[in-house]
Amino acid sequence: MLNSFSTMTKVFFITILTLVISSCGSTDETTQSSSVETHNQAALVKEQQREAKQHILDYAKADADYHALVAKFNGEEVQAIDFDAILRIYPLTTKYSPYGNVEQAQKLVAFASMEEKNWDACLHATKLILEENYTSITGHYGALACHFESGQQENGEYHNAMLDGFIDAIWRSGDGKTPATAFYITSTNDLYAFVQLNGMVAIGQSLVYYEQRPMNAIKVQDPQTKQQSTWYFEVTAQFRRGIFDDIESRR
């Protein structure tokens, strides 16, 4: 009986040990399967995020639309709607820089060239500005001034028409009197150029938010009457692109 009991006990322990080992193997397989599934889910989420980002910033389409409009401006009669459209499309293109580094640098060159009456250097600088940003009222203003001064009347008149068109487009975007009716602007350079070309002087600036949209509140003064008021400019385009560019640089 003792031997029989011993044999049964051994069989029992062997059976238990087999079940334990089998259970451990099953756990390892489950863990591995779970790890693979988690990895696949993470990869799927990343791909969905990439696709969503491409949908939001479709550079290829924006670039094509932008270049088509630039060609239209250079080759045929354009309407007010074309000025409105290119202002909205430009910040979505690969050319757009929220800080306008090229424009800022070449603006300084253009204005210094005007002081020196070096019209060729001025025209070269404004050409670089407009190649980077055809919507630039700073670039068109410099181009019209230097073309007129160098005796190129027809080209001066062309850039004068472009300048008027873009200024009118900004006025159509709002009246600037309140955050709810803020002017739409795509660069700080154009913001201050717009103020100056409308005969005002900027004497103060602050950042405010309206319905979670960033606004530059610019205190302006009429140099003749000394009357002061505040003009509001929506700068969502700069903020949005700055955030996306920062995300892309860390990818």
What do you see in this structure?
Helices cover 67% and strands 11% of the residues. With 251 residues, it is an alpha+beta fold. It has 2 domains: 1-56; 60-249, no CATH class. Strand 3 (213-221) and strand 4 form a beta hairpin. Helix 3 (80-89) packs across helix 7, helix 4 (101-115) packs antiparallel against helix 5 and helix 6 packs antiparallel against helix 7. The radius of gyration is 32 Å and the shape is globular.
Terminal residue distance: 74 Å
Give the total of beta strands: 4
Beta-strand residue percentage: 5-15%
Shape: globular
Which sequence of SSEs, written as H and E, runs from N to C? HHHHHHHEHEEEH
Strand order of the largest sheet: 1-4-3-2
For the sheet with most strands, the description reads: 4 strands, mixed
Query: Roughly how much helix do the residues carry, as a percent range?
Result: 55-70%
Number of helices: 9
Mean pLDDT: 83
Q: Structural class per helix/strand content?
A: alpha+beta
Low-confidence stretches: 1-27, 51-55
Features:
single chain, 251 residues, alpha+beta, 2 domains, 4-stranded mixed sheet, 9 helices, 11% strand, disordered N terminus
What would a concise description of this structure say?
Helix content is 67%, strand content 11%.
Topology:
Elements: H1 2-56, H2 59-75, H3 80-89, H4 101-115, H5 119-132, H6 137-149, H7 153-172, E1 183-184, H8 188-197, E2 201-210, E3 213-221, E4 228-234, H9 236-249
Parallel strand pairs: 1-4
Antiparallel strand pairs: 2-3, 3-4
Helix pairs in contact: 3-7, 4-5, 4-6, 5-6, 6-7
